Amino acid sequence: MKQLRKMDERGYSFLFVFLTIILVTVLGLSIIKIANNTLKTSAHERDDQSIYYIAEAGLNYGRAHFNLSLDTAFAQADINYHLAKIAYEQQPVGDPPNYKSLLLDELRLLGYPTDLNSSVTLDNTMTNLNQQPFKKPIFEEQFGQSPEANVYITLKNDKEDQLQYEMESTGLFKNTAITRTLQQYITISLEFADIEIPDGSGSNGNGGTNEGNGSSNGGHFSPKEYAVQTKGNIIVTGGGKITGNVASADGIIRLGGGASISGSIGTSLDRFEIEHSGLDKYKNQVNGSKNFPENVLAPFPSDRMDTLSQLKYPANEEAAKDQWNKTNIIHNGNFQADNWIANNYTLNLTGDTHFKQFKVDQNNAITINVGNSDKDLYIENLDIIQGHIKIIGTGKLNIYVKNTFNIKGSFNTGGDLSQVNFLYSGTTPLTLSNETQIVGSLYAKEADLTFSGGVGIKGNIFTGGQNVTFNGGFNSTSQYIIAPNATIKVQGGANIKGAIVADNILVDGGGNITFGESVVPPENGGGSTNPGENPNPGNPSPPNKHITEESILEK
User: Fold this and answer.
1) H or E stretch covering 119
2) DSSP assignment, residue 204?
3) Domain encompassing residue 175
């Protein structure tokens, strides 16, 4: 009996070991399954996060491509808008050019959607017309998978001065069902400059008036009362003479050396300087300082020059005396009338024209026919070394000079004073001398001016420069000289009839100024009411462009 109980105990041990093995096996399998599920979850999360970054990279890549395309579209739309403006100004038929329409045309050429809610993949778009289409970003293989980003762009909003695009990028691994999509809105805003239209009331443009001593009316200041008006000093000496009224805002007025002023003297007694013996003669003419007029120079038409600089050069052309004697008078954008064959050539302007150089020499006579409408002539370098220019036709001619300005000879002599306007944007000092005669007005943006040696300019003179000198027999008849930043010197027998507005003035060496109103309206020679400025208030310069990129969101 005792032996049997020992055998029964050994059976229970076997059963315990067997059950333990089963339990360990089940636990092990459970742990393996949990670990496997964890690995699968980690891999999925890793792939999901990777796809997010792939989608984000695709969106960034596409946005950079779109910005380059916008640069191209803006540049070409600006050019087309300038040219369309010129055509419209010449023949204002129908509606004026619409910048946004021109911009959409350029985006359409580059492959972008231009109809509301239409969409394209960036695979079909370009940054410019000379490049291959957009190429998808290339990603390195990750964990045996091939990443890919598909980028789409949709026009979501089309307002009067605004376009809004939605860019969408979907990241994925090929041959998997996992995708993530990001989106971003890009808004293009077009901001046109405000345009003020003069009301003709005589306002100086800043809400003030010029106290009855002249008017600007949106153009250049037109003096009505003073032969000379300055911010600073008026010095008349050495036999100098001013016939008319003078006024200074903040400077002194000094007479000496046989000089004289015939009219009222606009300063205070403590700022009027003369030898004591002469004070009694003039004290009744002194009537207090006068405010300097505001906005005496109309804005220089730089935008117009930028527009004209976009014009293509005219086609090459020959001038011929006979079948054996010929010359290239227009060649590669240059007008070259510098040999005898070009003498008496007529340049017919059928529209606004752009030349690199306009050169006349050998005392040649050249006729410019402007026809019956106003024309703008944009010249990078004007070199009339020795020549004579005649203007025919009834239209006005505005000559915009960018770099060098040289004239020796004559320009429009015997012609209409109001028909020709020179507008010079260069900074090199401009000197006209000897026998040169110009019938027309001149507006120098910031260059200093010197007129000497018998030169004659019959027309108004405007400049933003610092110095203007009239010397050696200069003679004028009824012109305005408006130079609010300049010290003007009238000396060496120079004789001016008209009115001068300046910072300071020195009349010396027998110089003479006699008041007279200009025979040419001051609007001529540049400014907001000058031909050559945009006459259509509804047709402004190209707008400023603002691009707004909103936050990236996940769809």
Assistant:
1) strand 119-121
2) -
3) 7-192
Nearest partner of 516 among 494, 499, 496, judged by Cα: 499
Q: Is residue 502 part of a domain?
A: no
H/E segment holding residue 256: none
Q: Is residue 21 part of a domain?
A: yes
Question: Is 540 inside any structural domain?
Answer: no
Name the token pair of 532: 């050559």
Length of the chain: 555
DSSP state letters, 458-518: ES-EEE-SSEEEE-SS-B-SSEEEEEEEEEEEE-TT-EEEEEEEEEEEEE-TT-EEEE---
Task: Tell whether the model's pLDDT for residue 484 goes beyond 90.
Answer: yes
When pLDDT is cut at 50, 70 and 90, the band that residue 206 belongs to is very low
Give how far Cα 544 sits from Cα of 70, 78, 435, Å.
13, 11, 47
Domain annotation covers residue 34? yes
Tokens for 111, please give them: 């492959």
3-state helix, strand, coil in the chain (%, to 5): 25, 35, 40
Three-state secondary structure readout of 391-460: EECCCCEEEEEEEEEEEEEEECCCCCHHHEEEEECCCCCEEECCCCEEECEEEECCCCEEECCCCEEECC
pLDDT at 162 over 70: yes
Q: How far is CA 435 from CA 49, 381, 408, in A?
A: 83, 21, 7
Read off the pLDDT of residues 405-416 as tens digits, 9 standing for 90 and up. 999 999 998 888
User: 110: which 2 tokens?
Assistant: 């580059």
User: pTM of the entire structure?
Assistant: 0.60
The phi-psi region of residue 177 (left if phi > 0; otherwise alpha if psi is between -120 and 50; otherwise beta) is alpha
Whole-angstrom distance, CA of residue 357 vs CA of residue 57? 51
pLDDT, tens digit, 9 for 90 and up, residues 136-153: 777 777 667 778 888 999
CB 372 within 8 A of CB 350: no
C-alpha of 91 from chain center: 23
The number of domains in the chain is 1
Between 222 and 339, residue with greater pLDDT: 339
